[in-house]
Design brief:
Chains A, B: Belongs to the FAD-binding oxidoreductase/transferase type 4 family. The structure is a homodimer of 472-residue chains. Chain A has 472 residues and is an alpha+beta fold. Chain A has 15 helices and 17 strands. The longest helix of chain A has 21 residues. The radius of gyration of chain A is 23 Å and the shape is globular.
Chain lengths: 472, 472
Amino acid sequence: MTTATNNAKEDLIRLLGKEKVFTRDDGKLDLGTFDSYGTDRTKVYKPNYQILILPETTEDVARAVDYAYQNGIAIVPSGGRTGYAGGAVAKDSEIVISLTKMNKIVDFDPFLGTLHIQAGMITKELHAQAEERGFYFPVDFAATGSSHIGGNIATNAGGVRVVHYGLIRDWILGLTVVTGKGDVLRFNGEILKNNTGYDLKHLFIGSEGTLGIITEAVVKLTKPPKDIRVVFLAVPEYKNILEIFKETHNFSLPLLAFEFLTDYCLNKVKEHLGVPDPFPAPSEYYVLMEYEISEESDEEKLFAILESITEKELITDGSIAQNTRQNQTFWKYREGISESLSLAYTVHKNDISLPLRNMETFLYDMQSLLSSKYQGFEIALFGHIGDGNLHLNIVKPKELTDSDFFQKCKQVDPEMFQLIQKHKGSISAEHGIGLLKKDYLVFSRSQTEIDSMRAIKAVFDPKGIMNPGKVL
Amino acid sequence: MTTATNNAKEDLIRLLGKEKVFTRDDGKLDLGTFDSYGTDRTKVYKPNYQILILPETTEDVARAVDYAYQNGIAIVPSGGRTGYAGGAVAKDSEIVISLTKMNKIVDFDPFLGTLHIQAGMITKELHAQAEERGFYFPVDFAATGSSHIGGNIATNAGGVRVVHYGLIRDWILGLTVVTGKGDVLRFNGEILKNNTGYDLKHLFIGSEGTLGIITEAVVKLTKPPKDIRVVFLAVPEYKNILEIFKETHNFSLPLLAFEFLTDYCLNKVKEHLGVPDPFPAPSEYYVLMEYEISEESDEEKLFAILESITEKELITDGSIAQNTRQNQTFWKYREGISESLSLAYTVHKNDISLPLRNMETFLYDMQSLLSSKYQGFEIALFGHIGDGNLHLNIVKPKELTDSDFFQKCKQVDPEMFQLIQKHKGSISAEHGIGLLKKDYLVFSRSQTEIDSMRAIKAVFDPKGIMNPGKVL
C-alpha cells in the first residue's frame, strides 16, 4: 500500500468513522469477501484495490466522493455485482464504495404508489416491500436475489417482462445522486409532472456509475397481475415466431413475456437439468408466452389466441401450464439455458438486440459468417424475442482450447457487431458496456454521440474519477 | 434589415433554395402569417424577426443550423406554436425555423408498433395515421389540432390521460435532432433495448429547443381502448377527492383520466357555454373519471367502484354518461373552463404540480396568502388531479385594471412558487419554462442542477444560438 493510500485510509476514517472504512490488510474482512466487493460476474478481470467504503447515507457517500475529488482518487461504485460487462470491477487501485448497507426504505406514498428507497436495497427485497403494501414492482430477472436496485438503475436493467412493463428506466420517478464532484443532486420524485428544464435523471439511468453514484431512488409501483398463464409452443420455422408475436397484438390480453429458444438450447436443458420433453415431437424453435389473467373471460381470450395461431399453422404443438409446477417447468426450459450451458461447455456470451423485422436476415448472415470463417462454432440462441433481444451464446467446439476459443471469439465479435450495425441493432441490449464492450461502442453509437457523452461526463465528473475506464 | 441579415438571406437561399426561405419584406407571406411563425399562445411577447425557413428534410435543417452556427446567428425552432410559456417566440431578430412542411411518415414497423415521422406532423394527424394502421397514439390534449409532434416532444407534453398513459416522453423510442452545432444525431428508434452509454434522447425531450431541433421521431403506439365510460361526481370536501383516487387503485379497471374542478369553475362553464347542471344540487368540488371498458364484466367493475365510494360517503351524487353526447357534456364541464374564463375575465394562468399528499395544505396556504395579501383575487381551480397537476388560474377582481392586476400577479407568483417549493411541487407541470418562468426556475431546480444544465447546453450548443433566452 502506498503512502497516498495510507493517508486516504486515515483521512476517510476521520471523515466517515472507522466502522465504514475497510482496507485489504486490516483483517476486518477475509480477503475473498474483500475482493468480491471489487468484481462482478464477468470473471475476466481480477480485482485489485485497497480501500472499501460501506456508507450508510447519501451524506456519507458525498463526503467520500468529495474527498476523492479533492485528491484525484478514482472510485468504483459497487452494488450487487451481478453484471456481465465488468462495470463494477476495481482493478486499478480505485476506492470501492459499496452501497450494501444503504438498504432502507425512506418513504412510501400511497397516492402516487411510490417507494423512496436507498439504492443498496436488494431488488427482491423491493419486490417484497411493494407486495407488503399491496403493490407490485415489475422489473424481474434471474439475479434479483442479489442485485441492488441502484445497480439495476445504473445499468437500466430489463428482464423477462420488458415486453409488457418496459425497462427499469420507466419505473424511476426520482433519483438522488452524488456526482463526481461530490455534489448531491436530488431529482424530485414526489411528482409525476415537472417540465422545468432538462431531465437529468435519465442521464444517470444506464450510466454505469461513470457520472456519479445513485444513492436513493423513488420507484413507481403498479398493481400485481391477478393470475398468470404460461404457454409453451413448438414452432417449426423462425418466421412463424414473428407472425405469432404480431398475432398477439390483435388481442387485448396483456402479454407479460414473449421468449424463445432453439431446439439446441432445449436439448441442453433436458440433458443437464433433467426436465421432461415438452412435446412428443421435437421442433426447430420454441416460444414461451406468459399472459396476465384477471377474470374468466380472459381464459377464453387465451384460447382464442391459441386457436388463431393453430389455424394459421404457425405452431405444430402447444400447451398451457395447468399449475404452478408446470409454470415453473416451462420457464425452466427458458431460464435454465445459461445454467445448463455453463455446466458442461465453455461459452462466449453476447446480449444483443435487433429490430424484429431484421432479425431473420441478421441470423442468416450470422450463420453464414460462422460457417464460412469459424467452423465448428455453434450458436445457442434464446432470449426476449418480443423485445428483439437475443442472447447469442457461442459454444466452444471440443477440439479448441479455452484460450484459442476466446481468441477466436475476439475476432468474431467485431464481425458480428458490424452485422448488428448493418441491421440497426444494438451490441448491448441489457448488459451495458462496462469494460467488456468499450472498444465496440462505435458499432452502436456515432462518434458525435460518443464525443457528446464524454463532454457530458466532464460536466458531472470533471476529474474523471467516477468508474474510470468504463463505457467511454 | 441589417446587411448581416441581407447576407444571411442570400446565403440561406443559396444553401436551401428560395422556396424554403422567407423574409418579412419579400411579399411571399402576408405579415400576419409571417409573424405568427415567431410567436405562440402566450400573447405577452411580440414577434420581431426577419427570416423564416421552412425546411423539408433533416438535411435542410442541418444546413441551416450549420450556417447559423458558423455565423453566430440565433435560431428559434417553431412547431405548432400552441405553447403557453413563450418558448417559440422570436423577439430578438432570430432566424425562425418552422417544421411545418416536415409532416411526412418516414416508416412504420408493425412488429414493434412504431411510426417514424417527421417532427412537423400535426398531433391529430399522428392520431389518424396510427388509427389507420390499427393502433393508437394516446397523448391527447386540447391543442392537438394544431400542435406539432416535435413541439410536443420538445415540451414533454402531457394532457388528459397522463394518469394512465404517462407523458409523451414515455412514447418516444427514437429521435433525430440537429444540435446547435449543426450535427445530426440519430438516436436509434428501431429497437426497444439499447444499453450502450447515456440515453441522450431524454435530454432533448423537454428541452424546449435550447439544445437543438427535433426533426424526426419514432413514436410507440398502443392498442386503442375498446370503449370508454365517463363518470361525473359531486364531491363535498377536498379530502374526499384523494380518497376517491385511492379507491380507484383497488380495482383493476383502467382509469384513463381523473380530473377535478371547483363549483366556481362549473358555474363559469354553465354561464358562458350554456351547459346544463350536472346534478340537482351544487357541490363544492366535482370529479371527472374516464374508464376503459373492454367487456361486459368491466361495467360491473365500474358499478362496484361507484358503489364503494358511495358507501364510504365520499360523494353526494354521481352519474355515468349514457352516450357519446353525454360524454362530451361531462368533458365540457372540465375542458370548457379555460374558454369560459377567457370569454369574460382577465386571468393569470399557472400550471403547477404538487405531491397529492401535500395538495390540501398547499391549497390552504395559498388561500391564506391570497386572503391576507391579495384581497378580491379569486382562484379558478381545476386540472389533472390524478397527476397532481393543478391549473391554478387567478381571476382579476373587477375593480382592478388589467395592468394593475398583472403587476400584482407578478408579486403573487414568487410567493406562490415559494409555497410550491416548500410542498415539493413543480412550478411548471406541463407548460415548460420558456421565457415566462425562466426567472423562477430556482424554485424547482437547485443551483447545481441549473449549472449542470447550462454546461450540458454548452455541449450541444456551444455558441448559444439555439432558442437563446429560453429556459436557462
